[in-house]
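Researcher: I'd like a structural prediction for the single chain below. Treat it as a standalone chain; there are no partners to consider.
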Amino acid sequence: MKVDIDMGKTAAGDAAMLDIEELLATRLLVQGNSGSGKSHLLRRLLEQSAKWVQQVVIDPEGDFVTLADAFGHVVVDADRSEGELVGIANRIRQHRVSCVLTLEGLEIDDQMRAAATFLNALFDAEREYWFPVLVVVDEAQMFAPAAGGEVAEDARRASLGAMTNLMCRGRKRGLAGVIATQRLAKLAKNVAAEASNFLMGRTFLDIDMARAADLLGMDRRQAEQFRDLRRGSFVALGPALSRRPLKVEIGPVETGARSSSPKLMPLPDKPEDVEELIFTPDPEDFVRPAAPRRAAPQPRATTDIMDDLARAVERQESGSGEETETEMPGRKPPLSAEEMESWITDTLAEITSDPNSAFRSDSELYQDFLMRGRMRRISGAPLPLGEFRLRLAIARAGVDEETAASEAWQTAVTLAGNVTDDLKGVFLMLAAAAIRNAPCPSDAEIARAYGTHSARRARRFLDWFEEKGLVVTHTDHAGKRIVAFPDLDARTQGGDADAPLADAAE
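Model: Treating it as a single chain, here is the predicted structure.
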């Protein structure tokens, strides 16, 4: 069923129509600086489509709870346990009820965890409840940041993973992502890139204008128009909106936010006894508790790392030969190119041999790697971060020299460029098993390669690889899982998907 909703007027005065059915299949990205009218646009979209499609709103500031009175949305306070949020999300999909998940009042870490839990529960709903849902996420850069910030790493990864699932793999489950952000530069690229429809509002920073112009297929000169857009004006492009960039003025809305931009008003007349009025204490001042301060995160303990490094230095010193005349006493000579490559390989092997390394972030492991280099008197960074991540993924795959030298493995490394950095280790581990014709890794092994304890997420990764056309999964006559790589002409043997980790079994 084709349903067009009226978003406002075009520059020519025609109605700006948005095809809801097409939007469900192609997703939408809204971008604009604060005050450009993003929330007004989302409200117009939600109001106009409320009677046609189920809606779920991820609302960081509680601005959209007013939809409840006019359109019957259920307001879900996110200050609940994880189990409660999962249960509510399951019933939301089962009974096809529109809702607003309000995150107001939570710290940013808790907002990210609550949003991730709710979105993952929507994503993991039973197949029989895969009805179309418009999932609107305001301030999406909070939940899918382009880089790590001051938030906890587990919260960032959980939230980013949920947003990636929504935008990359949600379509088959009926979930259509509509994300709005103030800064495109702060939004994860793999999340933004999955949208096929765009509404770009007023923006001033060159980096944001350049990304907006790139998404819309404009040159730099055309991108200058984003600075001149008025509040509530957007440039639209996409199969659900317009095949060519089209300027749109968003129409009025029926409901309003609980909070709005402050308005100027004249100051009241100054009281004659103003100093007495201000400085005379109120009795409540002495009993009012102080506002709690958020505790600063404790630095990660580095005792174990330093012990490892000290032992490594002792081993190197005990095995060093006699000094040459040009060497400084007590200092090790600089490494040759071959020695540097050998040191990098050995160091990555040491890092990945620690079972807990799978659950530490790449940036954390990179700092460990650089510290080991400094202890070996290596000046500068032995590897840039991007190459370190790829080499780390290869090291985690555990390939032997024969496999690493094969043409199939080089092809697998090239194919790994089609997946996100956090999934390269998983992809290469599966590819190594296929090239060696080894049993398919279990869900627990795949989860550990990613750095999570959730076997359910491991199955999502395989689904995503299959959607991208990188692998084909099936089961043999015994019910064991096989993963085949068409581009490698290789496949794994059957493996038990539910098998526990080997060290856990022991």
